[in-house]
Design goal:
196 residues; alpha/beta; five-stranded parallel β-sheet
Amino acid sequence: MLNRCSALVFSADGRWSEAFCANLISIGFMRTFCVNDFESLEQAISRHHINYCFFSQSSQVVQIRAAINAIRTYKDDDVRFSPIILMAKEISKEELRQYIGIGFDDIVQFPCTFDMLRTRAKRQLNNVIKYYETADYFGPDRRNFFGSQTQQHEKRNGLAPYKCLSVRRDVFKGVEVVDVFDHKPPAFAQDGLKAI
């Protein structure tokens, strides 16, 4: 399956990017690209493959957030719903919370085996994955990632609007949005009616 996928590798360390691209080819990716900015992202995107985006922890969080925002707001769903994976070496619980809040699909700690990396990458294909879009978040549902609701998530009581999009990535058909739930609480719905 990965032989019909492209991998875009984002890192502040060019040598790491090149080495990691070679590793991704060895686990089956068809094409790999080192991406440094939005222009190189535009050039590397494949219209005929699922585009995986791998980030190195060595990049600054501000740069990672900007790159992910560019991907998630892209005009084409095949890019917008690209699997976004962080490759991390040593990561604290607080850093993990921060990266989860950015909207990564997966966080893989290395060193790891090629088989493990291949398995984790394949999880992103042919399964229905739910994405949540709010005023300040776009990514997979991570509310129960740490096993219990955090204080921030306890505040979520359905009073703010959000979208839940169910997505399936197929290596032959591309990305398909199979369902959209657009939650508008009564206060927002009434405001919308008044505006009409």
